[in-house]
């Protein structure tokens, strides 16, 4: 029998600068899909998120190539394949304005199927 589970990694969180989601143990899963629901974002600001994998939940490296970029409200989604035991997002909130650090209010989900 197939299993599925959706983990809520961030709920109504306001992100600034660099961020990392909580690590999530996913060794049982065959499929992983990320969702970033951007509720509010300062004009000129972009979220750049990279998927990271880990064998132990302590030591991390980037996977899947380039960062996903979000610059507007709404929901974006992408898949991650061939992952190890743990997943997380490592990202940056980048502002185009000199006088603002930039911020984004988000919800981040990780949907898993085994």
Task: Throw out a few tags for this protein.
4-stranded antiparallel β-sheet, 9 strands, mainly beta, Jelly Rolls, single chain, 114 residues
Description:
The protein contains no helices and nine strands. With 114 residues, it is an all-beta fold. Strands 2, 3, 5, 6 and 8 form a five-stranded antiparallel β-sheet that branches. It is globular, with a radius of gyration of 14 Å. It has a single domain (4-113), classed as Sandwich (Jelly Rolls). The termini are close together.
* Rg: 14 Å
Residues in helix, %? under 10%
Tell the overall outline: globular
| H/E element order | EEEEEEEEE
Assembly status: single chain
Number of strands: 9
CATH class: Mainly Beta
Sheet with most strands? 5 strands, antiparallel
Span of the ends, CA to CA: 9 Å
Count the helices. How many?
0
CATH topology: Jelly Rolls
- Residue runs with pLDDT of under 50 for 5 or more positions: none
Q: What is the level-2 CATH architecture name?
A: Sandwich
Beta-strand share of residues: over 45%
SSE blueprint:
Elements: E1 4-15, E2 18-20, E3 24-25, E4 31-41, E5 45-54, E6 61-70, E7 74-80, E8 86-95, E9 104-113
Antiparallel strand pairs: 1-9, 2-8, 3-8, 4-7, 4-9, 5-6, 5-8
What's this model, at a glance?
The chain has 114 residues and is mainly β. It has strands spanning 4-15, 18-20, 24-25, 31-41, 45-54, 61-70, 74-80, 86-95, 104-113. The chain has one domain (4-113): Sandwich (Jelly Rolls).
């Amino acid at each position: 029998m197939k299993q599925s589970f959706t983990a809520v990694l961030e709920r109504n969180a306001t992100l600034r600068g660099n961020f990392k989601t909580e690590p999530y143990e996913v060794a049982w899963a065959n499929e992983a899909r990320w969702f970033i629901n951007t509720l509010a974002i300062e004009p000129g600001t972009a979220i750049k998120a990279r998927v990271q994998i880990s064998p132990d939940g302590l030591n991390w490296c980037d996977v899947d190539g380039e960062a996903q970029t979000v610059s507007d409200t709404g929901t974006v989604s992408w898949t991650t394949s061939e992952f190890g035991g743990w997943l997380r997002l490592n990202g940056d909130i980048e502002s185009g304005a000199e006088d603002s650090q930039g911020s984004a209010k988000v919800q981040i989900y990780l949907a898993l199927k085994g």
